[in-house]
Amino acid sequence: MLIALDIGGTKLAAARxxxxxxxERRQLPMAYDETGFCRLLDEISRGWDRSLPLAVAVTGYxxxxxxxxxxxxxxxxxxxxxxxxxxxxxxxxxMVLINDAQAAAWGEYQERKIIRNGQHPADLLFMTLxxxxxxxxxxxxxxxxxxxxxxxHIGHVGARLPALDNVMQCGCxxxxxxELLASGTALARQASHLFGCPVTCPELFAMASGYPVAxxxxxxxxxxxxxxxxxxxxxxxxxxxxxxxxxxxADRMLERIRxxxxxxxxxxxxxxxxxxxxxxxxxxxxAAWMQR
Length: 292
Hints:
Nucleotidyltransferase, domain 5; alpha/beta; 13 strands; 5-stranded mixed beta sheet; single chain; globular
């Protein structure tokens, strides 16, 4: 048995896991200051055996126990924050830390390996469309993390299409990132601009069937995602792309991405599928990574 944490841009999830089964799951809203975050770690694991092994999936990239944001607009204090040290105040056993999308990529790869009886892709890209846009890559049946934990950050690759509210600078400091168009934060921001009033991402998807502007914005984001997939595929020759995250799994988003990709002249196009593990891909993926 182990404890798994999934630390995202808007939530902190925790679970006690035995093998591939979640025995108990908890979730709290993310805190955006160091003191509040440490309080969350204590609260979410209260009553559990904190001497159990700890598997941590975390937004950003992990470099020698320190956590760094790529987009610093999401978690302001996530700038070489000593995450391993903070966790060690509450958890006394061994721990592993990897990026949340990398963890989800490994979880989705392992799930396909099991349910497809070995007929699973050797090369897989997982894309999470959520608060931000992240990714994880399995190549030759091996998870690629990178020397600094950066591998798979597809949300911060440049996009051809501009955001529909003309915002160009990303929280990572670069201009024209995919995350500016296709994340939940970006969709809400662009929708609020286009409609002239605050619109959340769930509200935008609910409006899509009745408001052409809403449908156009979502389809536009799907086009940007499809173009990112195509560029990645031409670099790596990927077999399957798994779409996850609250936006990726929202109503008809997967269908929109498939349609956009099918319209491209892409040789040997990869299979596009939805996350089989849903919102728990990070938790189960990092648990599988620790138990490998």
